[in-house]
Structures are given as structure tokens and as C-alpha cells.
Specification:
about 675 residues, mainly beta, Maltoporin, Chain A, about 5% helix
């Protein structure tokens, strides 16, 4: 392969710092530069690094998650430009929002397995960060890689494996972790053990969290934010030949707590005793016959299932909500050369089936009807390197989906998504890039077939004629990377981008009243009603020295309802974050702080609510003494140092006030 293509893998670690999303806390001394292990990223299907290539990928590794003492999706996505959460702060109601698009407009995967669950106000993704090794977020429309739903982007979670956990030369090891958070008096107890042989590996992990309701900056309890979480992971790998590798992954999540049935709202009505169960099983196969010239095959067979069991405290009403997804995903990468042009060809396909069911007191629940969909797709991407300066990547994906429910007409449709990306090296250190990408989202089973009562006097009306939502995104940007600016061993990375995403046929829920006397009566239905445009800019700066780092990230979005000429709802506020860390005092200590500034969000629809801006200050301290042979680690942090009362614009409740957190890990 071309020299630049080979460099994609060698430069992975430093590329992460350029994105300002990885903490340089994996080792090093003041006499030598801090280093990060090379990391490959698969969210864009290319298997390269987060910085190399036209797509906008953000990455967090295990080291950063541990330093942050991540406990929820909010922590996992913290400081990623253009990325936030909605529905919080209740953990099981949180959802990722990428470039102003959330809900089912973001594809979520865990170890390649789709996480397709959605039911009203109940959240979408259920996991504990303790089991994670790496988080990848692909920003911008990505249906050419991931099909239906990737209008905003993709969040990919990768769980831990024995080879991730064990140091070079180790055949077995373990880790115990204990943690405490002042807010909600949360406790954490977790353990991991791993072993491996010449051709096999085995890892097991379990974590338990217990927390009561937390309080905001005014000291007022935020209701129904308590959690009782139990999560676990088993990962086994077998390599019968140097070119072949099989991997089995089993993960489980349980949360038993009391929460409103509309968990992502401020409502305290209809409190339910909710048991959330989420299980993911994956069987993966990797074929690597020629890594030098890139020839790779990845296959994942998976099953995911989410079960929500809710009993309403007021009257004992019992709801069960379940979605099972069975899928097969495959990606083949082949490198080759034709004359002076180097190529990387990516071919693949996906087949998956969703099967949902809902009951109320043992009877069918039309608000979450029994329904199923089957999706089959094929895709191709072709990355071409014309010498050292020009890179061109066209891509296409074709999806065919069939949706059906009892008593309703079935439907079949096809969608084709196109992408074209280009990169030009203006100099040895400066690259410019541009891309065009299309995406779509097929209507969900609930949107198509929902029925039953919405509220007294109002019934849901199915609409099996809904059209898919579509997006067309244009993006331009530049990256700059250099070293030795102020002193030997330092490094500077800068990335700036601007984009415009035009969306059509947005699906919205409308309430129509047919009469008001003697009592209001009407219907609720889903319709394609909105044409929208989202424009945004993102900035990422990372500066690294031998004893510390500085990173800056910022994003600005403007969404407009094109039909009405009014602001688009659901847009996050402008935000900038600045983080700095140093080991200057001792190589065993990492001392740092973070400032997050969020502007007022008053660009809202007429029926929307503005949110005041705020500035947060966080401090953190990590102690990782070398004389303990890297066995002991202690992390201390203070979030929201000034005890600010604030609310994320995309959430209905206040966020926690000042929070002291402490976590200790012992490795054996």
C-alpha cells in the first residue's frame, strides 16, 4: 500500500490528541513525551484512525473513561464537539444527539450489534461504561456505511477483551475497582479478570452501582434519579490459525428503579417500578491473510434484546415492552495498486430483523404494537490515493426494508445512499477536505402502526404510508498537524469544519381535535411534515508537550424549519470546552481542570422554552505510582466546582450540583 495509507495505522495514537478527546495519561515521564497506544477505528468501516480520512470521527479510549470515572452516556460523550445528550439526567432515558439530531436519527452499535430499541419516552441505549474499552462517534450523515437511521451520525461502543486488558507478556490478571460519588451517595464495586494462552483469551467483568436521587445546585432533590445497576461482560476469543480469529461476546445490563413512565420529561405522574434488561450477544470472525497490503474480512452475527417491565405504583397497571434484533454484518477491505494510484476497496452487506411486542396487563398493547421489520443491504466504498497529495473516496449503499404488523398492510421500500469525499494536501502539515453524504431513516414500527388511546378522548391513528426521512450533507474542513513549535517534543493538531445538512420528510407526531364539546375528542398521528436545514461549525485543537496537554473543542449549530422559517426545535446550545493537564510535579500525578461554557439557547420554536447559559468548572487528579508496578490507581475529581444550578437544553430536569467523586483501582 501507499506510504500514506501505512502511516494511517502508525499515527493513530497522536491523532486522538489532535481531536482533543483522549487524555495523555497512559504513561511517560517529564523526560520523554507522553504516548498513546495506536487505536484503530471502525465506525466508518475503513479501519483506519480517527483523523485520517474525510469522515469526522471522535474517539475515547479506556484510559480517558477511567480518568473521568464515567458512569453514564453523559460522561461518555463529554467534550465531543457537536455531540451531546437528550432526555437526561435519568440514566435510562439518555440518548445521544449528534449535530442536532437524536432519537432514531442516530445509529447505535455495540461490538457491531445494532441497538435499535425505542419506545416513546423510555430511552434507547442501556450500558455501563465499566465494560467499555473504546467509544467511537462518527459525526454527520453515514447511511452509506450504516443504513437507516444515520442522519445525525453513529455511536459505536466496543467492550473490553483479554488482549485489551492484559499487558504484553501477561497471561492472566485481574482488577478490582471501588468508587464513590457525593451526589446521590453513589457507590461502585467492580471486578475484572482475564487470562489467555497462545491462541485463546477469556475475560469476565461485573459491576454494581447503587445511587439515590441527586440534588441540583440549589440543593433540591431531582426526583426519580436513583439507580440500582448490575452489569456484566464475558468475552472469549479463539485463534485456530494466525489468519483466523473467532470471538464470542456476552453482555448484560439490569437497572431496577422507580421512574416516571415518561422518563425523559419533568413529569412526576405515572411513577412505575421499572426493571430494565438489555442483553447483547455477538459472534465475530476476523480474517487477516495479508495485513501489510491490507486484506481483511470482519463478520459479526448478533442478537440484542431489550425488555422493560413496568408496574405503575398508583394502580398496579403492568406494561411489558420488548424488542429483539437478529443481525449479520460483514465488511471486507482490500488494498491494491494500479500504477501510481493506491486503492483501498471496502465491500460489505448487512441483514437484520427487528421484532417488537408490547402488552398491558397481559393483553396486546396497541401503543407498542406487535410488529417486525427486515432490512437487507449492500455497500461499497473505494478510497483512492493519487500520489501524496490527493485522496478521493466515493461510496454507495443500497437498503431494502420490509415492515409489517398484524391487521395492517405490510410495506416494502428501497433506498440508495451516495457519498463522495475528497482530501487535498496543501502542504506537508495542512490538509483540506470536502464531502457530500446522503442518509435516510425508515419510519419506525411504532410510528407506522401505533394505535390505542393516547390520552382520554384521543386515539392514536396508524399511518402505514409514511415516507422515509432523508438528509443531504455538504461539509468542508481542514486539518493541521505539526511538532516542535515551542519546544522539542511538543505537538499541535487543529481541525476545523463547517457543514450544511438539508433534511426532508421529517416525521412528526400531531394531535388533531375533531370536536371540543361536550368533551374534547380527536386523534394523534404521525406525518411527514417538515423540511429542515442545519448548519454548523466545529473546532478542535490539541497541544501536547512532554509533561502535559491542552485541548479545546467547540461547536455551533443553527437549525431552521424551512417551511415556516422558524428555529428548529431540539438544537443544542453553542458550546466550548477547554481542558488542561500536567505531570510536571511528578510522573505519577496528573493534575488538571476543565471549563465548559454554554451559551443561552433562545433560538427555539414559538411553543419552545429557552434555556439560560452557564459555565462549569471541573477539577481532577489521578495518582498512578510507578513503584507499585502500575498496580494501584486513584482518581479524584470535583464536578461543577461552583455548585451551579443549570439544565442541559435538551433535558427537562436540572443537572447535578457540586459533585465529589473518588475511585480506586487495584490491579493484580
Amino acid at each position: 500500500m501507499h506510504r500514506k495509507q501505512t502511516t494511517l495505522y502508525r499515527s493513530a495514537g497522536l491523532a486522538l490528541l489532535g481531536l482533543g478527546l483522549a487524555s495523555p495519561a497512559t504513561g511517560g515521564t517529564p523526560e520523554g513525551p507522553l504516548q498513546l497506544e495506536p487505536v484503530r477505528v471502525y465506525a466508518d468501516r475503513f479501519g483506519t484512525t480517527s483523523q485520517d480520512g474525510p469522515s469526522q470521527a471522535s474517539v475515547k479510549n479506556r484510559e480517558t473513561l477511567q480518568q473521568q470515572q464515567a458512569r453514564s452516556l453523559d460522561d461518555v460523550l463529554q467534550d465531543m464537539p457537536g455531540v451531546t445528550t437528550s432526555g437526561g439526567p435519568r440514566t435510562t432515558a439518555l440518548q445521544p444527539v449528534i449535530r442536532g439530531l437524536g432519537d432514531e436519527r442516530v445509529v447505535i452499535r455495540q461490538d457491531g450489534a445494532r441497538q435499535n430499541f425505542r419506545s416513546g419516552h423510555r430511552g434507547r441505549v442501556f450500558f455501563d461504561p465499566e465494560i467499555l474499552q473504546q467509544v467511537e462517534v462518527l459525526r454527520g450523515p453515514a447511511s452509506t456505511q450504516h443504513g437507516s437511521g444515520a442522519l445525525g451520525g453513529v455511536m459505536s461502543l466496543r467492550t473490553q477483551r483479554a488482549d485489551d486488558f492484559l499487558h504484553p507478556g501477561e497471561t492472566q490478571g485481574g482488577r478490582v475497582t471501588g468508587g464513590y460519588r457525593d451526589q446521590g451517595q453513589e457507590t461502585l464495586l467492580a471486578g475484572t479478570a482475564a487470562t489467555r494462552g497462545e491462541r485463546w483469551g477469556l475475560l469476565g467483568s461485573v459491576a454494581r452501582r447503587n445511587a439515590s436521587d441527586f440534588a441540583d445546585g440549589r440543593g433540591e432533590d431531582v426526583p426519580n434519579t436513583a439507580d440500582a445497576v448490575l452489569s456484566g461482560l464475558v468475552n472469549a476469543s479463539f485463534q485456530p490459525h494466525e489468519h483466523h480469529r473467532f470471538e464470542l461476546g456476552l453482555s448484560a445490563y439490569r437497572n431496577d428503579h422507580e421512574i416516571p413512565s415518561a422518563a425523559n420529561t419533568a413529569s412526576t405522574d405515572n411513577i412505575v417500578d421499572r426493571n430494565t434488561r438489555s442483553d447483547t450477544q455477538t459472534l465475530g470472525y476476523e480474517w487477516r491473510p495479508d495485513t501489510a497490503n491490507v486484506r481483511e474480512l470482519d463478520v459479526v452475527v448478533y442478537r440484542t434484546r431489550v425488555d422493560l417491565d413496568e408496574t405503575r405504583l398508583e394502580d398496579g397497571r403492568h406494561d411489558e415492552t420488548a424488542l429483539t434484533t437478529l443481525g449479520l454484518d460483514t465488511t471486507f477491505r482490500q488494498g491494491f495498486a494500479t500504477g501510481s494510484v493506491d486503492h483501498l476497496l471496502i465491500l460489505g452487506g448487512e441483514l437484520y430483523r427487528d421484532d417488537q411486542s408490547g402488552t398491558r396487563n397481559g393483553l396486546d398493547r396497541p401503543q407498542f404494537p406487535d410488529a417486525e421489520q427486515t432490512v437487507a443491504s449492500a455497500f461499497a466504498h473505494h478510497r483512492m490515493f493519487f500520489g501524496e497529495r490527493i485522496e478521493l473516496t466515493p461510496g454507495v449503499r443500497m437498503d431494502r426494508f420490509r415492515q409489517e404488523a398484524a391487521g395492517q398492510p405490510s410495506r416494502s421500500e428501497s433506498e440508495t445512499s451516495w457519498q463522495l469525499a475528497a482530501r487535498y494536501a496543501l502542504s506537508q502539515n495542512l490538509d483540506a477536505y470536502a464531502s457530500y453524504a446522503e442518509a435516510f431513516r425508515a419510519p419506525s414500527l411504532t410510528e407506522l402502526y401505533v394505535g390505542g388511546q393516547h390520552f382520554p378522548g384521543n386515539l392514536f391513528e396508524p399511518n402505514p404510508n409514511l415516507r422515509p426521512e432523508t438528509a443531504r450533507n455538504v461539509e468542508v474542513g481542514a486539518t493541521y498537524e505539526t511538532d516542535g513549535i515551542l519546544r522539542d517534543g511538543d505537538r499541535l493538531n487543529v481541525r476545523v469544519s463547517a457543514y450544511e445538512n438539508r433534511l426532508s420528510d421529517f416525521i412528526e407526531q400531531r394531535v388533531v381535535f375533531d370536536s371540543f364539546f361536550p368533551v374534547p375528542t380527536g386523534r394523534t398521528l404521525n406525518e411527514n411534515v417538515r423540511e429542515a436545514r442545519i448548519r454548523g461549525q466545529e473546532l478542535e485543537v490539541g497541544y501536547q508537550t512532554r509533561s502535559g496537554y491542552l485541548k479545546l473543542a467547540g461547536s455551533r449549530l443553527r437549525g431552521v424549519d424551512r417551511a415556516q422559517g422558524t428555529p428548529l426545535g431540539g438544537m443544542p446550545a453553542d458550546q466550548v470546552s477547554l481542558e488542561a493537564g500536567t505531570r510536571a510535579l511528578s510522573p505519577a500525578w496528573l493534575l488538571g481542570g476543565r471549563m465548559t461554557a454554554v451559551r443561552d439557547q433562545d433560538r427555539v420554536p414559538e411553543d419552545g422554552t429557552a434555556t439560560p447559559g452557564y459555565t462549569l468548572f471541573d477539577l481532577f487528579l489521578s495518582w498512578h505510582p510507578q513503584h507499585f508496578d502500575d498496580a494501584l490507581r486513584v482518581d479524584l475529581g470535583v464536578d461543577n466546582l461552583t455548585d451551579r444550578t443549570y439544565r442541559n437544553h435538551l433535558s427537562a430536569l436540572n443537572s447535578p450540583g457540586r459533585n465529589l467523586r473518588l475511585q480506586a483501582t487495584y490491579r493484580f
